[in-house]
Design a protein that fits this description.
It is a single chain. It contains seven helices and eight strands. A hairpin with a 2-residue loop joins strand 7 and strand 8. It has an eight-stranded antiparallel beta sheet. The chain is α+β, with helices and mostly antiparallel strands. The protein is globular.
């Protein structure tokens, strides 16, 4: 990560912040976008009271990707995916990255082809929705889609877990429904997410930590009952 940043034309202060996203980000397909979001993330780290969101609509060949850089907080993944769903933007896959030492998030959401072309106005509307945390407000659950499927909670690493969900339906709003329920019922903090649709089947993995007072046995019971 440091080599990528040093050769990317960033200001020196970026070296204290951006490597926190780790080698998985810089060695993967999203590392090329660091220059698009880097200045905003460095500014968030330098100004703790700033609650600004940056959304950029990225075009990679025929693919459309919504990139979001924001201050990280519990419920952010549900807030973003809910804002996308409420805007009528269908997701094909999603990948989340966290700079946990600085409390920052850089997330990428691939949009299903064939929908409305997204532009700067869409990005500004999403920024407002995310800043206002509309999708995790009280009463938001009433609008959640009901998607039948199989959910399970597995150990991932010490103190961290993976919620896996598989459905026969490629349903709109599935990612939002799962991230919202992690936020509302498990009170978990999501630090990673991977979602894929293949031949009408949906596969979602949500990586999270639980609050100290929540046992894994209780979390698994809530997954069985609520997911």
């Amino acid at each position: 990560p440091r080599r990528s940043i040093e050769t990317g034309g960033f200001a020196p202060e970026a070296l204290a912040v951006l490597p926190d996203f780790g080698p998985d980000f810089y060695n993967g397909v999203y590392g090329r976008y660091a220059s698009r979001f880097g200045a905003h993330l460095v500014r968030l780290a330098a100004e703790p009271g700033l609650d600004a969101v940056k959304v950029i609509i990225l075009h990679e060949g025929t693919a459309t990707i919504v990139g979001v850089a924001a201050r990280d907080y519990r419920g952010l993944a549900a807030c973003i995916t809910g804002a996308l769903w409420q805007a009528g933007i269908r997701l094909r896959q999603a990948h989340l990255f966290s700079a946990m030492n600085h409390g920052l998030a850089l997330d990428f959401f691939h949009v299903m082809p064939g929908g409305t072309r997204l532009g700067p106005e869409t990005a500004r509307a999403l920024e407002r929705a995310i800043q206002e945390r509309r999708a995790i407000a009280d009463g938001a659950e009433a609008a959640l889609p009901n998607v039948p499927g199989t959910a399970s909670l597995h150990d991932w690493s010490p103190g961290q877990y993976c919620l896996r969900f598989e459905s026969e339906m490629d349903a709109d709003g599935l990612i939002y429904a799962l991230t919202y329920k992690v936020f509302r019922y498990l009170e978990g903090n999501i630090f990673g997410l991977a979602a894929h649709n293949r031949r009408g089947r949906a596969f979602v993995s949500v990586y999270l930590s639980l609050p100290p007072e929540r046992t894994v046995e209780e979390a698994r019971r809530l997954v069985r009952e609520r997911f």
